[in-house]
Amino acid sequence: MNKVLSFRKADLIVPVAAVFLSVIVFLLCSIPMMAGDKGGKWVVITVSGEEYATLPLNENRELVIPGENGFDNLLIIKDGYADIAEANCPDKICVHQRKIRYKGETIVCLPNRVVVSIEGGEEGDVDAVSR
Questions:
Q1: Residue 71: its pLDDT value, please?
Q2: Which of 82, 62, 91 shows the shortest CA–CA distance to 74?
Q3: Whether the predicted pLDDT of 28 surpasses 90
Q4: How far is it, in rounded angstroms, from Cα 131 to Cα 46?
Q5: Is 66 a member of any domain?
Q6: Rounded mean pLDDT, 9-21
Q7: Which of 57, 61, 59, 65 is nearest to 101 (CA)?
Q8: Is 50 contained in some domain?
Q9: What are phi and psi of 92, to 5 degrees?
Q10: Looking at CB atoms within 10 Å, which of 16, 80, 87, 116 has the fewest?
């Protein structure tokens, strides 16, 4: 009745394989997050549907964006916000839009065919709730 338990090399295969697979799954899940936007926010500017520039939101700067039909927009990036400060388009709706800073927010100037959007970083708070 008194048996001595002995381990064989084959008895270690399952635990070692489980640990190895766990490490592989962890690395595969964490590498895209580390290599992604690295927590930074970017201002992506498109003109007529084509990417014009991508700028970091944490660096203050001004940029004149040439739009369609000879119109221009003045983009100001300051204190973590992007804003169209001036435009020589007829309606100037883009100038009256609020400053943007959260992922997914955009400013659009239709006459100039300019879109300024934020990518990366955290999403903003809920603006409203509807039922």
A1: 84
A2: 62
A3: no
A4: 34
A5: yes
A6: 79
A7: 57
A8: yes
A9: 55, 30
A10: 16
3-state secondary structure of 116: strand
Q: pLDDT (tens digit, 9 = 90+) per residue, 83-109? A: 999 998 888 899 999 999 999 999 999
Whose CA is closest to 107, among 61, 62, 70, 76? Answer: 76
- pLDDT band, residue 37 (cuts 50/70/90): very low
- Say how many CA atoms lie within 13 Å of 71 toward its Cβ: 20
Q: 129 in a domain, yes or no?
A: no
* 71: CATH: 2.60.320.10
pTM above the 0.85 mark? Answer: no
**E strands present in 13-100:** 42-47, 50-56, 61-66, 72-78, 81-87
The number of domains in the chain is: 1
Residue 17 vs residues 12, 20, 31, 111: alpha-carbon distances, Å:
8, 5, 21, 61
Q: Where in the sequence is the domain holding 67, given as residue range(s)?
A: 42-119
